[in-house]
């Protein structure tokens, strides 16, 4: 019934609006233009690049080189205009939203609320699938053969499949929500971030629940060893294995997408001149989603480094391989993305997501160090009540001089002057950054002016050359 109501809302809004949605038409035109640009290997420049940076001419270049640069400059201006059309599209969407009637606006907001519930339902279904797959995998972990291997890797398979399928479905939902291009990208990234980080949290929470017997470590299977020794005789190894599986499957999915999807799509588009293939075009290289994949991989490494010490080395090898694979697919299979993501927004957003991943990994580490009893069957901490106990034990085994020095470092006599000095250095760095920022802005303005002067001189040169040519032709006659 929910999907029937959503379909009715879509139809009613389309009928009341009385015309097609201009954002979709503009997106299609932008896609076609970008596809033609990618087929001719035209460069794509950012909107932030100034005309002076693109049109500046070195004084040592010859006039023939200056005239030869005219066509590339024109192409750069055309591509820059195409990138600027994204802002025009957003303005048109805002104007259309302002012109909606009250009934149309109510239907649009109702449709967006329903789509939000659908997206949350998909994400919740992915979380539930991870929970069920993890429990099922641990219950069937003793089986051998192919089924045992599948059960062993089932949580990683479900998480990787959810991270791959659910964002694609959310992208289709975003088409129905009819937000502006920048808002659509931000919402897609927020949903993907929430899905990836919380799915990792659901996996860890399920594991901790089973390891600690639902938090009651003094009853049931946890009464003897204060952890579930029957299912997890070496629980640190099991957690490290899960993080290793996530890293491995993330790498395999990227390679499989490159070999089985992007290369065949490029071959079909280049060699089969069908209207359907030309409409789809080549694969877009979307920078935000690729950076988000790197952030997710780094979060998995931070989470599992305590339990799998070689995981950072494995992840480094994985990132090196992915770099060259992404480089190949970028230059061979992809075209520029139609919807751009501003660099100023992306810097803050991805740093914030990376901070969230670090926070998740820190919570996992603190809980593992301070709460759960180490495995009695393996590991260097098996004779301690928790992993953190080795820190004070090692501290009190130090010489008296070292203990006094560390006590002084942790005292107020050292921390307060250090904090004051840090504040002074921070203020100095902020002031220096402000001065450098003003200098950079001044230099950019000067560069633009010099570029315009050079353009003026080139035009004057061309004008004088034509006059001299006309004078020579008249003298020859």
Q: How does this model look, in words?
A:
Strands 1-2 form a two-stranded parallel ribbon. With 477 residues, the chain is an all-alpha fold. It has 16 helices and two strands. It has helices spanning 2-17, 22-39, 51-55, 63-68, 70-98, 102-139, 145-177, 181-211, 235-271, 275-280, 287-304, 311-332, 343-370, 390-396, 400-409, 412-476; strands spanning 283-285, 334-336. The protein has three domains: 2-105, no CATH class; 106-394, no CATH class; 404-476.
SSE inventory with pairings:
Blueprint: H1 2-17, H2 22-39, H3 51-55, H4 63-68, H5 70-98, H6 102-139, H7 145-177, H8 181-211, H9 235-271, H10 275-280, E1 283-285, H11 287-304, H12 311-332, E2 334-336, H13 343-370, H14 390-396, H15 400-409, H16 412-476
Parallel strand pairs: 1-2
Structure, briefly:
InterPro entries: TMC (IPR038900), TMC_dom (IPR012496). The chain folds into 3 domains: 2-105, no CATH class; 106-394, no CATH class; 404-476. 77% of the residues lie in helices and 1% in strands.
Defining key terms:
single chain; 477 residues; mainly alpha; 3 domains; two-stranded parallel sheet; 2 strands; 1% strand; TMC; TMC_dom; Transmembrane channel-like protein
